[in-house]
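Everyone, study these two lines:
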Amino acid sequence: MHTTYLENLAESLRGALGDRLIEIQVRYGELTINVHAEDIFTASAMLRDDPILAFDTLIDLCGIDYLTYGDNLSEKNNFKNRRFAVIYHLLSVDRNHRLRIRVLTENNDFPVVDSVTEIWPVANWFEREAFDLYGIVFTGHLDLRRILTDYGFIGNPFRKDFPITGYVEMRYDAEQKRVIYQPVTIEPREITPLVIREENYGDCES
């Protein structure tokens, strides 16, 4: 019965989105669709306003960096070489169904996606977080600035090529009587855990 319900929902999505729907997947009892970055705003408005779908609530929005496992993306839709994506989780309170949307950005060097804050105002802070942590730019966002890192932070810490130690560190300078930034002084090192094995450990007593 649950499978039939998801199939009916998938058919409603195909009818509402048409050519804007690139791919639809049903896995582990969840529905995921892929949409082009250029279509996300229009598609989102349709998903919200369609009386059958009625996705009135954006539960979550986050960025993804596919740098190390791009081969798992669908090759038939030219997704293999795409690095960044934005994931949207939608809920219809009235219809009691959920949907996941994946939008892969066109440009790996400058990832851009249209903002959906006009459709779901709650996207404001979510988009700022994806901008801060992944460097994804949301066009149309009225206040796109960092939200988790400080103003002097360099880079995007959730990108997979971002160094664990970062690029700069900050400390309080007693002479200047303020916090200053300086290059990272931590030297990269390999930590080998100390393993202590007791003699005859695990031997069963006869």
Remarks:
- DSSP finds three helices and nine strands in the chain.
- Strands lie at 21-27, 30-35, 57-65, 84-92, 97-104, 112-114, 137-139, 168-173, 178-183.
- The mean pLDDT is 88.
